[in-house]
Design brief:
single chain; Rossmann fold
């Protein structure tokens, strides 16, 4: 196991252990969790769950939820299991080592959450960290029991949305955080399979263009799309806004 580090989120309600060389749970993971409309008794799946930051943040906010995490890297999945146990959620969680394209559990979940890689293949330099490179789709992954070795192209949004569609029950929700300039690709990949699409812009500061958005959509729903006023992340002085603090420190939902 690689060297690890510990961090706390949600005002120290949630303790997470990370690989020192891997991705860290960021504000994106917490915002993704805050946007998931889960309620007690629901089953959720986190596609590309890493060490469990987003999914465990949902469990911290909503009692009585069951989480399944799908993670391509076995070491990260192992850390996710450890993190669930460290926070008292081990009986509510399953973590599975799999490429999201190979995971099939049709119509099993009320909610899907995911935070796909932000950059298209060829649009970035390869990460010097092997763990980051695998997660970003730069290099081939090691074989795992469920799949044959092949190039990872998990940056293809359609793959993620196809997997989400298969996993969801009818009228189940998909919640995704991604780059604002990928809205067209996200909506195109949803196709006619999802409706009631909600776009929640995440504004860095008042007057600045959104760099990321949260997208929510409902399987088999035909309702029209809606763009929310969004969330301003920072005040002019760079501190988190009051609305953002409500999410990060007081475990409030995003809308």
């Amino acid at each position: 196991m690689a060297t690890t580090q510990e961090i706390y989120v949600l005002n120290k309600r949630l303790k997470l252990t990370h690989s020192a060389q891997g991705f860290k749970t960021s504000i994106d993971s917490v915002l993704l969790a805050a946007a998931c409309p889960a309620k007690s008794g629901d089953y959720i799946v986190d596609l590309g769950c890493g060490v469990g930051g987003a999914g465990l943040s949902v469990l911290t906010r909503v009692t009585g939820v069951h989480l399944t995490g799908i993670e391509i890297q076995a070491e990260h999945a192992a850390l996710a299991r450890d993190n669930a146990a460290a926070n008292g959620f081990e009986d509510q969680c399953d973590f599975i080592v799999s490429d999201v394209r190979d995971y099939h559990n049709e119509n099993a979940f009320h909610h899907v959450i995911c935070n796909p890689p932000y950059l298209d293949a060829g649009a970035y330099l390869r990460s010097p960290s092997p763990e980051n490179a695998i997660a970003m789709g730069h290099i081939k992954r090691a074989p795992c029991p469920q799949t044959e070795e092949r190039d990872i192209k998990q940056d293809d949004l359609r793959d993620w949305i196809d997997s989400a569609h298969d996993c969801l029950k009818s009228n189940g929700t998909l919640t995704m955080i991604h780059r604002a300039d990928k809205i067209d690709k996200m909506i195109a990949a949803l196709g006619k399979r999802f409706g009631a699409i909600e776009i929640i812009p995440l504004w860095p500061k008042t007057g600045e263009a959104a760099k990321r958005v949260v997208l929510r959509a409902i399987k088999h729903r035909k309702s029209p799309a809606h763009i929310h006023a969004g969330l301003v992340l920072h005040d002019e002085n760079g501190a988190y806004s009051d609305a953002t603090q409500q999410i990060l420190r007081h475990v409030k939902p995003l809308l």
